[in-house]
Please model this.
Amino acid sequence: MHCPRCGLGQPSDHRFCLSCGARLPTELLPAKGPKVSRWFRAIPVHAEDRPGSMLRVSRYLDEFDIETDEGSVTVPAHHVRFSFWLEDRAVCALSIPDDEAEALSAFLAATVAGSESREQIATRPTG
Model:
């Protein structure tokens, strides 16, 4: 778990950041569902980029149901969800199927490794 304000790694049972004292939202507590998640700190590269932005990437391994006051929702298995956070709340999210996530992973790894030219990576069809 990482603080959404300063990005410092936190013990999973803490409610406040050890560094800046920010409240750690309950969404950052260890998952109770059949998924794995990882947080990534954003870097400001544009004047409108807000400090404290984070990206949470969750891979859903098994289908499960969530019960709320408004009703129930079935969360499907075999997809990856990208959630964009400002401080302690998600502002938008998007999900892609596992095969697209694997294609994204290959794209990122090839770009970092430099094993192909940028033109080849950018124009390669997926799926």
